[in-house]
Design brief:
single chain, 391 residues, mainly alpha, two-stranded antiparallel sheet, 2 strands, 70% helix
Length: 391
């Protein structure tokens, strides 16, 4: 019994590096992303006294004297410039004009033992909209980023409503991302399935050559592959030069900085993720099934539809899932090959994370992609389970 327990402990010790790797590089980043998507304490950490009196306000009338007194006390007590800058940036994104208003107010009340009234500093402090912005951003837990990720927001009454037209395009970009990913998935399936059938039906050096053609993109940097397509697709690139040399066209065809170039480049990059799962399933199918169907009188197309295609459906679904889930997170290829109307949601996430320093929005958009991937995986698991059960 002790010998068995020792073997179990050794097995667990061998698994510890893998478990630590998953915790540090997978689960922890996901947790940080989800936490950023629902938390925002930039205002609450500075305006602590204001937070205690803000619930007494009805949200629509002029600010109460207690609110103004508490705000002045909070601003006088605030010393961390980083925290103040984060608060001002958040308030300004909610209500335009807060940057100049807060800068002007801080200058008037800093190091002043008897600071003037807020309205005497700037008349905008009597406007309820500026206090509504503070009230809205006061809670450290918020659904604002998640709603904004799908172009929704809460009105002053707290109800979820659609954002004003033109104020956000996250939903349109998300739909564009799913559409481009779906196109790439369909093209990969259309090219990858016949190629996988060819791989499964050959042997020797021919199979090795076909395998090398599939695996070569995986051994090459994504940036290099994208740059190669940039050279091939440009107006004076190899493809346009060949078409004009053959007389098929008299002027260059626009193949770059548009949707066509993005789909072509992404299809080439992601094709191995479609071919390899289909090939692995085709290899497991007995090769005598198609001849048996033919001997029973089924023409080749009918034998394919009734025998080979249903048996290889699991590989097709696996490949489509891999390609689609990878495609929706693509950043380099649309950025280099696509135009302004072809950028995917990953570009917006990069902007919020590095350009606007809005980690909440970046996390919320990442959560939308995560939920989409989980739903797709759930559908795939359900379909494959049903197929296995019926078999």
């Amino acid at each position: 019994m002790s010998n068995l327990a020792t073997k179990k402990r050794r097995a667990y010790l061998l698994l510890m590096p893998l478990i630590l790797f998953l915790l540090v590089f997978f689960l922890w980043p996901l947790w940080v992303m989800m936490k950023q998507a629902v938390s925002d304490n930039a205002v609450a950490v500075v305006l602590q006294q204001t937070a205690t009196v803000m619930p007494q306000w009805n949200g629509t009338s002029a600010p109460t004297p207690d609110m103004k007194t508490a705000l002045i006390a909070d601003l006088k007590a605030a010393k961390d410039q980083q925290e103040i800058g984060n608060m001002v940036r958040k308030l300004n994104s909610e209500q335009a004009g807060y940057r100049t208003l807060m800068t002007k107010t801080l200058v008037q009340i800093r190091d002043n033992p008897n600071p003037p009234d807020l309205e005497s500093i700037d008349a905008r402090w009597s406007d309820p909209r500026y206090w509504q912005a503070i009230n809205k951003l006061m809670s450290p837990v918020t659904d604002r980023f998640l709603l904004a990720a799908v172009d929704m927001e809460r009105n002053p009454e707290g109800k979820m409503v659609a954002m004003a037209a033109g104020s956000s395009a996250n939903r349109d970009i998300m739909l564009r991302t799913f559409w481009i990913a779906a196109l790439v998935t369909l093209f990969c399936a259309a090219i990858g399935y016949p190629y996988a059938m060819l791989l499964a039906s050959t042997s020797g050096w021919v199979k090795n050559l076909l395998f090398a053609a599939v695996l070569l993109p995986l051994w090459t940097s994504l940036l290099v592959r994208t740059a190669a397509w940039f050279i091939l697709l440009q107006d004076r690139g190899l493809i346009n030069d060949l078409l004009m040399t053959l007389g098929l066209t008299h002027s260059p065809i626009p193949l770059i900085f548009n949707r066509s170039g993005v789909v072509v480049a992404m299809t080439h990059v992601l094709l191995p993720f479609m071919v390899l799962p289909i090939y692995s399933v085709l290899q497991a199918i007995p090769r005598n099934l198609m001849p048996a169907a033919s001997s029973l009188g089924a023409p080749p197309w009918r034998a394919f539809l009734k025998v080979l295609l249903p048996l290889s459906l699991r590989g097709i679904l696996s490949g489509m899932l891999l390609v689609f889930m990878t495609a929706i997170g693509y950043y380099i290829t649309p950025a280099l090959i696509g135009g302004a109307g072809d950028q995917m949601i990953s570009s917006i996430i990069a902007y919020y994370a590095m350009g606007a320093a809005n980690w909440g929005m970046a996390g919320a958009l990442g959560m939308v992609l995560l939920v989409a991937c989980l739903i797709l995986y759930g559908v795939y698991a359900r379909l494959t389970t049903e197929k296995t059960g019926s078999a």
